[in-house]
Amino acid sequence: MAEEHTYYHLDAVICNESSHTTVFLATWTGPEIAGYVLPNDKVVVKRTTSMQATNSEIDMLKRLAHRTNPSQDFFTKLIFVHDVISNQQVDLVMEYGGEDLSQALLMHNEQKQTLTERLKCVSKTLSHIMVCLVKLHALRLVHNDLKPENCVMDADGNVKLIDFAIAGHAYMINSEDDNLVGYDGEKVGSEYYMHPHLLWNRPLSLYQNDLWALGQTAFLLYTRQYIYDSEQASQSEKNNVLRLFLMDLDWYKKFPLNEVLQSHESFPLFVKFVSKMCCLSQAPERAYMLLLQDPFLCYHIS
């Protein structure tokens, strides 16, 4: 399936993000670009026909590259843009930061790890994501689609955020008219990780949308289960589960969680962290440096 381009060679499909966007793993065959890519490095090519979303992502990646310290890698880097005018197609060539978390932490066989080792890895991973959000929120920007599939991990366990297609400035959503919608008029984001107030068209600061998503990512990585079955649960059942996380600090008592997990020393720290990210009475205004001292985020160094 490989196609020849001037600077890169497509190797395999990573995923189909939508009907108009496909993501490929590729090999860079162009010249060295200092600080970005060397010949024969693996890169990611995002091929899309959604021009408005593409322009938005390019603008965001350029802004992040300009406004963050080059020595601090928190966000994926844009290497090259290839326009194919004949079929209104754009290829965004970005650095390859490793496997996404759904592959790196959820799908791989980890029999060699003890439970404590696995949970310390989860703690470390979440602390890295929090650093990314702290940097992003300090610029008054939000990701808006944080989830395991949009975080990549390299061989050393370092994590970066990817996919800034719907990222943007932080603002307060006050009505359905303000809600996050894509260029096709449809609501954007991912169901499991979108703050309930966005789903229910209630007022919300978009900073808290990112924090909710981090809390739900923590739940999935720690428990290895979703908060509900998206195919089997009714909308009423889904709403009831979401209200638990929003309103009830004892939400964890309502889930059939693994007893071994519940008896682990890290479990109380995990519960408090998820509550801090998701419960309305606990959630901070935005990500900030002191959150990096959260006991669960520090568990991996204990």
Could you name the ranges where pLDDT drops below 50 across 5 or more consecutive residues? none
Kindly give the count of domains: 2
CATH class of the largest domain: Mainly Alpha
Kindly report the CATH topology of the largest domain. Answer: Transferase(Phosphotransferase), domain 1
- CATH architectural grouping of the largest domain: Orthogonal Bundle
Instruction: Order the strands across the largest sheet as they lie in space.
Output: 1-2-3-5-4
* SS content category: alpha+beta
Percent of residues in helices: 25-40%
Number of helices: 8
Q: What series of H and E elements makes up the topology?
A: EEEHEEEHHEEEEEHEHHHH
> Could you tell me the radius of gyration in angstroms?
20 Å
User: How much of the polypeptide forms β-strand, as a percent range?
Assistant: 15-25%
Dominant shape: globular
For this structure, what is the CATH homologous superfamily of the largest domain?
Answer: Transferase(Phosphotransferase) domain 1
Number of strands: 12
Rounded mean pLDDT is: 87
Distance between the termini: 47 Å
Largest sheet descriptor: 5 strands, antiparallel
